[in-house]
């Protein structure tokens, strides 16, 4: 794999921000399309350098859990893959996962936080609550990790440690789907390990999940996400809209402006915006899909990120070079 610093610093400008007809900012990004066999068919920047996909790794983490004995109904499996908005449906789902494993909410070890979604956050604060682990956007994943430990007979107190059997199983699943080894291991924002693969490897993962044979753990994740996109994100989230708007599509957004998509024909796509700012992520992915032949109205909505002046649109994020 290439050097990540060079890959990021040399990435092409794939979007710019227009305000009142004037270009005020640029966004460098790495983007890739891979074929069903995993071969790179379009590349923008160094797609072979390792990076942390952050929450875009969650579907592969869930596959590692399924391979280790986790068994959840589709709606809760989608929640295990989620960076959820903290709506009541999500909080109830986390409690259901834990209850099914015979565990209390207090066993969650993810970083306490307010709900990710604006409306859910305001409602939570108005009801007198503070930051809690259950409302942090990764609580579905952590509940599923705990449930996996119970199913496999593993220690629940140390499930976040990189050497724990759970995390080793997740690393093996990620490497298998990406077709490459894990390039680095760090600590994610939620406290669980985050594992680095290349942007191309991330795209391969999603293509393989989207085209997986029925009955496999990959297909179970695909079908769960497709049937319950709100559990994966929430109301008004672009990832939820994208999944609901394109049949057979699997997608997951991630912190530091990562986005990954798989199509039913096995093609995979991934984007990493160099500066980590989220506003260019969806427009770049929408253009990448549109130029790959995906023709659905949802791409117009997801790809339209306005620039506001006094609360009104005065410009937009413009994708270039794709």
UniProtKB/TrEMBL annotation:
Pfam families per record: Asparaginase_II (PF06089)
Protein known as: Asparaginase
Annotated organism of origin: Barrientosiimonas humi
């Amino acid at each position: 794999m290439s050097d990540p610093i060079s890959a990021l610093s040399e990435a092409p400008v794939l979007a710019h921000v227009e305000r009142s007809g004037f270009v005020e900012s640029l966004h460098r990004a790495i983007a890739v399309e891979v074929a069903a066999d995993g071969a790179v068919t379009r590349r923008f920047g160094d797609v072979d350098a390792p990076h942390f996909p952050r929450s875009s790794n969650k579907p592969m983490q869930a596959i590692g859990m399924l391979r280790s004995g986790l068994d959840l109904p589709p709606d809760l499996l989608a929640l295990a893959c989620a960076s959820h908005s903290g709506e009541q449906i999500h909080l109830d789902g986390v409690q259901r996962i834990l209850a099914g494993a015979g565990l209390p909410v207090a066993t969650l070890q993810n970083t306490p936080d307010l709900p990710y979604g604006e409306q859910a956050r305001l409602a939570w604060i108005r009801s007198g609550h503070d930051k809690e682990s259950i409302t942090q956007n990764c609580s579905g994943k952590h509940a599923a990790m705990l449930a996996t430990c119970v199913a496999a007979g593993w220690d629940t107190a140390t499930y976040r440690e990189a050497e724990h059997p759970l995390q080793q199983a997740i690393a093996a699943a990620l490497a298998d789907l990406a077709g490459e080894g894990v390039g680095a291991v760090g600590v994610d924002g939620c406290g669980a390990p985050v594992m680095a693969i290349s942007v191309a490897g991330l795209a391969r993962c999603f293509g393989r999940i989207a085209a997986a044979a029925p009955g496999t753990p990959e297909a179970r994740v695909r079908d769960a996400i497709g049937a319950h996109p709100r559990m994966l994100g929430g109301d008004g989230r672009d990832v939820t809209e994208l999944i609901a708007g394109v049949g057979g599509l699997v997608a997951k957004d991630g912190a530091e402006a990562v986005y990954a998509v798989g199509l039913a024909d096995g093609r995979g796509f991934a984007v990493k915006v160099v500066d980590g700012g989220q506003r260019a992520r969806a427009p770049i992915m929408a253009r990448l899909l549109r130029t790959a032949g995906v023709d659905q109205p949802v791409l117009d909505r997801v790809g339209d990120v306005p620039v506001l002046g006094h609360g009104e649109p005065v410009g937009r994020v413009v994708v270039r070079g794709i």
